Amino acid sequence: MSQTFEGLDVKVTRKDGSTVTGMVQSINPVTRTLTLNDATLLFRNQSHYHAVYYVNGQDVSDIQIVGEDEAFSTLSSADEAHVDSSSLDEEVGLE
Region Disordered: which residues (predicted)? Predict the structure, then answer.
């Protein structure tokens, strides 16, 4: 399941109130560490750029998908509409 998010642009809200935006490079399924490329950390109205930024899964309050790279943009909206949510639940073990 973690590979599903690779290449997507995300906005991560951390429990400390800060926000990080960037492209998902990888998610470690064991440690649940999120690795972001071209990340911008927004904290106390200041932004800080990081070529690579790591977010511990326990620190995440919310994740939103805000964009996608060219590999994902080739999907049509009709293709995206046919994603079966039950298959996603199986992948992440929600059944």
Answer: 76-95
